[in-house]
Amino acid sequence: MKIQGKMFMWLSVFLLIMAVIYGWWSKEPAGTTALFLAFGLAIMIGFYLGFTAKRVDVGAQDNKEADVADDAGELGFFSPHSWQPLFLGIGGAFAFLAVAIGWWLMYFAMPLILASIWGWVFEYYRGENRTQ
Predict the structure, then answer these.
(1) What sections of the protein cross the membrane (predicted)?
(2) pLDDT by residue (tens digit) across 6-42?
């Protein structure tokens, strides 16, 4: 994680320089604001990754002599058969369509979005304090 933190910190320096140059040269507030916001986002991510890298074990990406196989292993549990992301995507599509067509469509989108999020969060919850 150390290298990713450094990359984002260098990106934030670049974005700050470009924001100042662009703002001075173009006198256009929207693009200048966007570049300053991108600078803020990059520095937050870089600081977080650098801060977290001090508290976790050294990963294979921080070792210059590491192979691709050194980073192999279990990445986590991913649901193999969940329908919730599909319905969440449909609800999100209806919500964005409501902006173009009419806000009345949000009455159909919000229950679908909320039910999908509820179903996704509690998909593997069965009974009290059980995970499976």
Answers:
(1) 7-25, 31-51
(2) 999 999 999 999 999 999 999 999 999 999 999 999 9
pLDDT in tens, 73-118: 777 777 778 899 999 999 999 999 999 999 999 999 999 999 999 9
Count: domains in the chain: 2
Same structural domain for residues 58 and 12?
Answer: yes
Ranges of beta strands (E only) in the chain are: none
19, 56: one domain: yes
Cβ-count burial 85-119 (b if 16+ within 10 Å, e if not): eebbeebeebbeebeeeeeebeeebeebbeebeee
Measured distance CA(48)–CA(59) in Å, rounded:
16
Residue-range definition of the domain harbouring residue 98: 84-121
CA 109 to chain centre: 23
Q: Which amino acid is at 11?
A: L
